[in-house]
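Can't paste images in this forum, so I'm doing it all in text. The chain is below; anyone willing to post the predicted structure tokens underneath?
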Amino acid sequence: MAFKTCTLSLVLAAIALATGCSAPVTTSDAEPSVAESIATTWIKVDGSSTVFPLTDEVAKELQFERGTNAPDISVEFSGTGGGFRKFCAGETDINNASRPILRDEMALCKQNGVEYIEIPVAFDALTVVVHPDNDWASEMTVSELKTLWEPAAEGRITQWNQIRPEWPKEPINLHGADLDSGTYDYFVDAIVGEAGATRTDYTAQSDDDLIVRAARNDLDALGYFGYAYYNENRQQLEAIATAVTLFGLNSGAALATVVGVLIEVPVMLMLVEFCRRTAFWFPREPDKATLPDPRCVSIKP
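Text version of the structure:
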């Protein structure tokens, strides 16, 4: 994941926020120092696999900088939705999310007395990839991706030549995020245009590395995930350039067609607003005065 920070210490403060919720109760009249509180704290982080590499790196840096005074930090991933279920149940201190919190998740947190703050930490993009020796699917339109992934495609669109007649009469082996993933939510909304409306006969994964592995080992595979996983494996994957059509306000007339080819990477649902997403941290709410400036962390394509 290509990102920059003003200083890592500002980013690390987001994890330190959780210590206000997790620090053990003391019976002493003297207030413990920040270092003492952090050193005796266990911070549990879960949620998005897309945000996981950033949070994991931040946690390691905090532990490196503070040594024995660093908190014990557990960083796991179960998908944005799976993470919110744990977070709103009070089981974790920070939830990584690749989408904003949903209304039903807000209601669950409120019901359980879990207060939180939302910290935007990065911008990310989705990347559709194939095997590096795939020499036919170098680009696809959003309409073609919709034809491939919409519910009506299930059991019906199963070969490459059904997308374009000149493509091979070979099976398309689809891989993508599971239903708990914010990446799934975002991809389906951006490509199919309706929340949760997708075919189900694909290999669904909570671990993006497994999708990477499938695409690099199977000539007929096609998968999608966050840009960071492509960037780390670009020598073993081919990113599909995606043509995106923008429509006018109420007229429905096409204003422009933008091809998702950036200077360095031929991706990826990135050049229009609906295809760019923000990654978040959701720490349980301590003192808001200690918030870091979220502008100090941004992902750049």
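The chain has a mean pLDDT of 73. The chain has ten helices and 14 strands.
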